[in-house]
Amino acid sequence: MATRYLTMKDMCQLTGKSKPTLWRMYAKRGEFPKPERTASGTFLGWSEKVYEEWVSSNKSVPY
Predict the structure, then answer these.
(1) What are the CA-CA distances from residue 5 to residues 10, 22, 35, 44, 51 (Å)?
(2) CA separation for the pair 30, 24 (Å, rounded)
(3) How many CB atoms neighbour CB 41 within 10 A?
(4) How far apart are CA 47 and CA 20, in angstroms?
(5) Per residue in 26-38, is it b (16+ CB within 10 Å) or e — as a string?
(6) Alpha-carbon dihedral sign for residues 21, 17, 44, 58
(7) Which strands, in side-by-side order, build the sheet including 43-47?
(8) Alpha carbon separation from 40 to 7, 32, 33, 36, 63 (Å, rounded)
(9) Cross-strand partners of 47
(10) Least CB-packed of 6, 40, 55, 56 within 10 Å?
(11) CA 43: distance to chain centroid?
(12) What is the rounded CA–CA span in Å between residue 56 and residue 63?
């Protein structure tokens, strides 16, 4: 089964956060999973599974 990747635009809509806020959350604070990239560095995004795991682990944290 193929893995579906969520783009930055998708993630902004799902979380209600802006691009800079998401970047700070994963690059600076470690509060959000880092997006996946290919070996050559091409941005893939976040797999649906990673997003779902993040949501379930942060249900009690108000953002």
Answers:
(1) 9, 16, 9, 6, 10
(2) 8
(3) 6
(4) 20
(5) eeeeeebeebeee
(6) positive
(7) 5-6, 43-47, 36-37
(8) 18, 23, 20, 11, 33
(9) 5
(10) 40
(11) 12
(12) 14
Residue type (1 letter), 10: D
pLDDT tens for residues 5-46?
Answer: 999 999 999 999 999 999 999 999 999 999 999 899 898 899
* 3-state secondary structure at position 42: coil
46: burial class by Cβ within 10 Å (0-12, 13-18, 19+)?
A: buried
